[in-house]
Specification:
Layout (H helix, E strand, L loop, with lengths): L1 H20 L2 E9 H10 L4 E3 L10 E9 L1 H8 L6 E5 L3 E5 L12 E8 L10 E4 L5 E3 L5 E6 L4 E5 L6 E4 L6 E4 L10 E4 L2 E4 L7 E3 L2 H5 L17 E4 L10 E4 L6 E4 L2 E3 L1 H5 L6 E7 L2 H4 L10 E6 L5 E16 L8 H14 L8 H9 L11 H5 L4 E13 L3 E12 L9 E15 L4 E18 L6 H10 L21 H4 L5 E19 L6 E20 L4 E2 L6 E2 L5 E24 L2 E23 L18 E22 L3 E12 L8 E12 L7 H6 L4 E13 L13 E10 L2 E8 L11 E14 L4 E13 L2 E2 L16 E2 L4 E16 L4 E17 L5 H5 L14 E3 L2 E4 L3 H6 L14 E3 L14 E3 L7 E11 L2 E11 L2 E3 L2 H4 L3 H4 L40 E3 L2 E12 L13 E15 L20 E11 L1
Parallel strand pairs: 2-5, 6-12, 18-21
Antiparallel strand pairs: 1-3, 4-5, 6-9, 7-8, 7-10, 10-11, 13-14, 15-20, 16-17, 18-19, 20-21, 22-23, 22-55, 23-24, 24-25, 25-26, 26-27, 27-28, 28-31, 29-30, 31-32, 32-33, 33-34, 34-35, 35-36, 36-39, 37-38, 39-40, 40-43, 41-42, 43-44, 44-49, 45-48, 46-47, 49-50, 50-53, 51-52, 53-54, 54-55
Helix pairs in contact: 7-8
Length: 1104
């Protein structure tokens, strides 16, 4: 009540002000016409739209008016200019040049045509006029029209809620026009589970992504382009390897659900979708949005709707990107002389003889004997500066009123920075979508075929069979090791030699995966009851994979030899798998409006069945280089295989009700079953309720709306329960399990295969984790819909966790007790996210949009099932504490400064020979000694708790620029042992590691360096917060600058709809504390693995 009174009083005050602002006060002398218009905008809600070519740049205006109407002001300021103005909806004023005089010629040609909407349906009530004349007509109910006009005349098509279209009268034939709906942000269609709604009517928390911007990013998968694009989405990536995908989390949850064209699909299917094929992209964030997915909806859902054809002339679009990629940072490593000198200094400081005499050091320095005392740059040996990539996309769309077609094909070829030809990732995707309208029988049929084929290859030898191993050898190999002998052949004297591993004579790991998917959707509009539809959705998905591993170590050579030293005998392994998934859905929907009341009902039955199988084989110790099984010895050959199947079923219901398009309430739920659980408890019900209130539509808010302060203000809230698969159990955990052993016995003359129990009793009482979720949000549009925003607070509590009571009973049973539900164990997650955008134009030619989004969450365990060691030290416990900490360890107090400093306080019991420059730790429990009891929770979680993005889009006469600044915060990671330099002899690698403590360098980056960790009992390298690295960062994730040649050179070439050329880049700039360690903030903390990449791209996009 108090809130309503407040808004009423505020609206009355602003309404009075608004009434006065309909009249203008101006007193100006000899100022430009454009400046006068800006002053009018500053003191009113009027907004002017015009072309800079129309307004006379030299026109100076003088005006002195008080309480004048817009009519009076415009008459004065436009006097003598020949310009005309017109006020359209929402105080928008359009200024144009003089109206074309009505021609007095005879319009002798009768033109027939039709107007359709984007779905190919006839559109009635469309105004059709001859541009520059008074001739016009209106389309009938079927969208058909007839008008008299001359050949070459321009026809203008306009209708409320649609973008105005123009078409030239041809010499012969009919005119067919497709009208595109003009969508305001609040009228934007939002895809939700098993249906659609509008942003205005949405009662749950849903984010949408401008997928057109994502599609233009030269990224290897759609997930790589999502960072910073929407609130609630958290992206993490630890590798830039070809074919690698970023990990997506919604509000800090696990892997979300992926739904493509209404069907739940795999993450792999989603990652390989062509972004150019996507029409709508929605992110469902709260339980009210995902309750319809029941037991698998706890982590949120990403919903994708692919493009359909359009009625009218064929539309062809082709785009090409030539891409070059390289690591965001190349580590700068020490050379041989620098490294050995630093090691000598460490030994001298310890009072020991340096391992490398000065007489030898000089050879490393002057490189007079490079094959005896080498100075190898392993990055030059193994890495190129750039990796090439190519991406082609071609799409075709056409249609009639009866049938529309959309098809596309895409090819992506990605090389690597490794100096080998045996490394690539290639992907071919395709899609064919059709929509058939059988109006006579009230039936719409939608079909879809899509799929992809992806192949990849990486080198494979006995010392390195994956990226992590190859890059660890390149980055950590000592420069004193030799890559090639004096004949330029790979050296046999260096273990794990990258020159051997990357040799074209090495083996390979090759993978192939393919997916084919078929979709059929039937939509029958019941003629006997308006708004009633019966629908059927059937989807069949087939996938297959093949991975072949041919391990061959290339020949190596002695220092002065051309005689090859063979590597380990080759081995061959191969795994093949395939599977299929069938999804069937039956719908009943009813949507009607009764006066001020609207109701929308959806009822669905869904069932899903998945089958899969795999088989593996291997042979070893090949005597010849021939990568086929028939060539390998049968001794020790291996073979294995497996099959699996699973099924789900569910009944879904949703009722949406609204009153006066202002008050909304939704009820939804799913009665779900999964054969993962025991038969007696495999069904569960997951309900939700949500509501929203558009307070800006109340009469007392009219003053605010007239001023444009609140074009729309909506409050919404939701509560619901969703499920999550119980990870504590394996499949069929409710029945006894047995292992088949390799051993067998002869019993009564019969050979009996050995078996044993799995080690745990079956459990009959377990089910889903359940996530109870609450969400409160505000959506608004302001300042004539130029400012739009959304804010949410959410709270989730997961229950249903299990634990074993083994610790409470003796082990005389000889078998583990089954896990049971721990009622008090729960996991809480809460946070907030918001988005804000400003969309405007400085003139009719210059448009801009800037948007930002922010996501924060934290987590808390309630009574986690912890071990005895954690229970003894409450400061290391997980239960009842924030989940936002890295782990447990010592709190460091800096470096010991002197021997006196060593005597003052307690030292770590296990440390020996500590001196100045060693790390000092806190005696947190005050018992006078430092041991494991002094461990405390340290740092922030490794998964980022804060994520944000800032997006900018500019457009001016064909020139366009777009960028995304993204980052994360409240995140720590632990430096790896290589970066720590925990042993100078073996791991001192980087130049910054020389910044260690000495009596002359007490403000150092590192503690004193030691010749081996045992010198001081590993004092400096035990787990502590000293080695925690704040891994927050800000990154220019994406930028693109381009120009559409249709605005100039190709303006008169009607063949092209657009002809855009552009330059793009990803990860172009990064600010992060980790960069001083030559570590990308998202990559491995030892610089193992394929590094995160920056890309530069030249692109072309042509529409016909």
């Amino acid at each position: 009540m108090k809130l309503s009174v407040f808004f009423l009083l505020l609206a009355m005050q602003i309404s009075a002000v608004n009434y006065g602002q309909k009249y203008l006060n101006l007193k100006e002398s000899n100022i430009a016409l454009q400046d006068v218009l800006k002053k009018i905008e500053n003191q009113s809600s009027f907004r002017f739209y015009y072309s800079n070519d129309v307004l006379p740049s030299q026109k100076l205006v003088s005006i002195n008016v008080v309480n004048a109407s817009l009519d009076n002001v415009m008459e004065k300021v436009l006097e003598g200019t020949g310009l005309h103005w017109k006020e359209i909806n929402q105080n928008r004023v359009v200024i144009t040049d003089a109206e074309t005089k009505i021609r007095m010629v005879s319009l002798v040609k009768s033109i027939n045509g039709s107007v359709m909407n984007e779905s190919g349906e006839g559109l009635g009530g469309v105004s059709v006029t001859v541009k520059g004349s008074g001739t016009g007509t209106v389309t009938n109910e079927s969208g058909v029209f007839t008008i008299n006009a001359n050949v070459g005349d321009m026809l203008v098509f306009s209708a409320v809620g649609f973008i105005e279209q123009e078409a030239k009268v041809p010499a012969d034939g009919e005119i067919h026009v497709v009208m595109i709906r003009q969508v305001g942000q609040m009228d934007e269609v939002v895809v939700v589970g098993y249906g659609t709604t509008t942003r205005r009517a949405a009662t749950s928390s849903v984010s949408t992504v401008d997928i057109g911007k994502v599609a233009s990013i030269p990224a290897q998968s759609i997930s790589d382009g999502l960072q910073g694009r929407a609130s609630g989405i958290i992206m993490t990536s630890s590798t830039g390897a070809p074919g690698a995908k970023s990990q997506i989390s919604i509000r800090g949850g696990g892997t979300p659900l992926y739904v493509i064209d209404g069907v739940i699909r795999s993450q792999n299917d989603f990652e390989n979708i062509n972004p150019n094929d996507i029409a709508d992209f929605s992110v469902l964030k709260d339980a009210a949005a995902t309750a319809v997915y029941g037991s698998i909806g706890a982590n949120g859902a990403i919903l994708v709707t692919t493009k359909k054809g359009v009625a009218g002339k064929p539309l062809i679009n082709y785009s090409y990107n030539k891409i070059w990629s390289q690591p965001t940072i190349f580590p700068k490593k020490m050379g041989s002389f620098e490294k050995l000198s630093a090691i000598n200094d460490v030994y001298k400081a310890e009072g020991s003889n340096p391992p490398t005499p000065d007489s030898i050091l000089q050879y490393y320095n002057n490189q007079s004997k490079p094959f005896v005392y080498p100075n190898t740059d392993w990055q030059k040996v193994g890495l190129n500066s750039w990796a090439p990539e190519d991406r082609h996309d071609l799409s075709f769309a056409t249609g009639t009123k009866l049938l529309t077609l959309y098809s596309s094909i895409s090819y992506y070829d990605q090389g690597t920075i490794l100096k080998t030809d045996n490394n690539y990732n290639r992907r071919l995707t395709y899609r064919i979508n059709t929509v058939s309208n059988f109006d006579d029988i009230h039936l719409k049929v939608t079909t879809g075929l899509d799929g992809f084929i992806e192949t990849n290859s990486i080198p494979n030898s006995s010392t390195a069979s994956n990226f992590s191993q190859i890059f660890s050898h390149i980055q950590n190999k000592a420069p004193t090791a030799l890559a090639y002998n004096n004949f330029g052949l790979p050296s046999a004297n260096t273990t794990d030699n990258p020159a051997i591993e990357l040799s074209p004579l090495s083996g390979y790991n090759k993978g192939l995966s393919r997916v084919n998917n078929a979709l059929l959707n039937l939509d029958y509009a019941a003629p006997f009851l308006k708004g009633l539809h019966f629908k059927f959705n059937g989807n069949y998905n087939y996938y297959a994979s093949r991975n072949k591993s041919w391990s061959v170590t290339a020949p190596s050579y002695g220092n002065d030899s051309k005689v090859a030293i063979p590597g380990n005998p080759p081995s061959l392994g191969e795994t093949r798998g395939e599977g299929s998934e069938m999804n069937l859905q039956g719908f009943v929907t009813y949507n009607r409006k009764f006066g001020d009341h609207s109701i929308d009902f959806t009822g669905v039955y869904e069932q899903n069945k998945l089958k899969s199988s795999s088989i593996s084989a291997a042979r070893q110790r090949y005597q010849i280089i021939f990568d086929q099984f028939l060539a390998g010895p049968t001794v020790d050959q291996l073979a294995s295989g497996g099959e699996a199947e699973s099924a789900r079923a569910g009944y879904i219901g949703r009722i949406n009700y609204n009153f006066k398009n202002r008050y909304f309430i939704d009820f939804s739920g799913r009665y779900d079953a999964n054969d993962f659980y025991p038969p007696n408890i495999r069904w569960g019900f997951f309900p939700s309720v949500s509501a929203s209130y558009i307070i800006s539509d109340e009469p007392f808010m009219e003053g605010l709306k007239d001023l444009g302060i609140f074009n729309m203000l909506k409050f919404r809230g939701s509560i619901g329960t969703v499920g999550m698969t119980n990870a504590d159990f394996g499949r069929f955990a409710w029945i006894p399990g047995y292992n088949i052993n390799a051993n067998a016995w002869v019993v009564n003359g019969q050979l009996v295969q050995g078996t044993s129990e799995t080690g745990t009793l079956p459990s009959q009482n377990y089910s889903w984790y359940k996530v109870n979720s609450k969400d409160f949000g505000i959506d608004f549009s302001s300042l004539n819909n130029r400012l739009n925003g959304s804010w949410d607070y959410y709270y989730m509590r997961t229950i249903g966790y299990t634990g074993s009571d083994n610790s409470k009973y003796s082990t005389t049973l000889g078998i583990g007790l089954p896990p049971i539900n721990i009622e008090t164990k729960a996991y809480r997650r809460a946070g907030t996210d918001f988005s804000l955008s400003w969309n405007d134009r400085l003139s009719s030619d210059f448009t801009y949009k800037i948007g930002t989004n922010f996501t924060y969450f934290n987590a808390l365990w309630e009574n986690a099932n912890e071990d005895s060691a954690s229970l003894k030290n409450p400061y290391t416990r997980t239960s009842g504490t924030s989940g936002a900490f890295y782990g447990t360890g010592y709190n460091n107090l800096g470096f010991y400064g002197s021997n006196q400093d060593l005597l003052i306080g307690p030292r770590r019991i296990s440390s020996t020979n500590t001196v100045g420059g060693d790390l000092k730790y806190e005696d947190t429990n005050g018992d006078g000694k430092i041991d494991g009891s002094d461990f405390r929770r340290i740092g922030s979680a490794s998964f980022p708790r804060i994520n944000f993005g800032i997006n900018l889009d500019l457009g001016y006469k064909g020139v366009f620029f777009t960028s995304t600044l993204a980052g994360s915060g409240k995140r720590d990671r632990y430096l790896g042992d290589v970066i720590q330099g925990s042993s100078a002899q073996g791991i001192l690698v980087y130049a910054f590691q020389k910044d260690y403590w000495t009596p002359a360098n007490t403000n150092a980056l590192y503690p004193r360096q030691v010749s081996s960790a045992g010198v001081n009992g590993s004092n400096n390298y035990v787990t502590s917060d000293f080695w925690l690295l704040q891994s927050g960062y800000v990154r220019l994730k994406f930028a693109q600058f381009g120009y559409d040649l249709k605005y100039s050179l190709l303006k008169q070439v009607s063949t092209f709809k657009h002809f855009k050329v552009f330059v793009s880049g990803t990860n172009l700039w990064t600010s992060a504390k980790s960069m001083k360690y030559f570590i990308d903030p998202e990559s491995d903390t030892n610089n193992y693995g394929y590094p995160i990449q920056r890309t530069v791209s030249l692109g072309l996009n042509v529409g016909f």
